[in-house]
């Protein structure tokens, strides 16, 4: 599976989670994993100001400055807070807010080239293939 590097790729991946009928646990796992990857990806949210704006606008969370010093620490803190308050009905709202934020905000994205069209079908096939692999592994145990 290819690495997600552009905001368009993230928007497509979040929409896949939102459109498909995954189990509640699969949706939660995919959402949290993709959110972790978004926060730790330096090409999308490049600096502390971008991260703070994203967290405040989408998740309505205020963290102290020291939390923003390390992306893995920020991501784990946010994911922990979301997991504690997890409500399946609000995940769809979070996904839509993230997609709107990425689409509308003037986030510099080096990988956004209008001449390059990415196939959402390929990404969806990768996600479905991954789930099939995971499902086979859990049934064999």
TrEMBL record:
It comes from the Bacteria. This is Glycosyl transferase. The lineage of its organism: Bacteria, Bacillati, Bacillota, Bacilli, Bacillales.
């Amino acid at each position: 599976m290819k690495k997600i590097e552009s905001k368009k790729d993230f928007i497509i991946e979040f929409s896949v989670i939102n459109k498909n009928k995954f189990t509640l646990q699969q949706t939660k796992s995919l959402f949290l994993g993709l959110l972790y990857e978004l926060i730790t990806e330096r090409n999308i949210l490049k600096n502390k100001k971008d991260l703070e704006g994203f967290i405040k606008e989408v998740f309505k969370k205020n963290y102290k400055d020291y939390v923003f010093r390390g992306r893995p620490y920020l991501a784990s803190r946010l994911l922990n807070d979301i997991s504690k308050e997890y409500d399946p009905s609000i995940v769809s709202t979070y996904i839509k807010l993230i997609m709107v934020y990425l689409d509308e905000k003037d986030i510099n994205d080096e990988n956004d080239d209008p001449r390059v069209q990415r196939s959402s079908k390929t990404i969806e096939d990768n996600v479905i293939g991954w789930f099939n692999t995971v499902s086979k592994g859990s049934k064999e145990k």
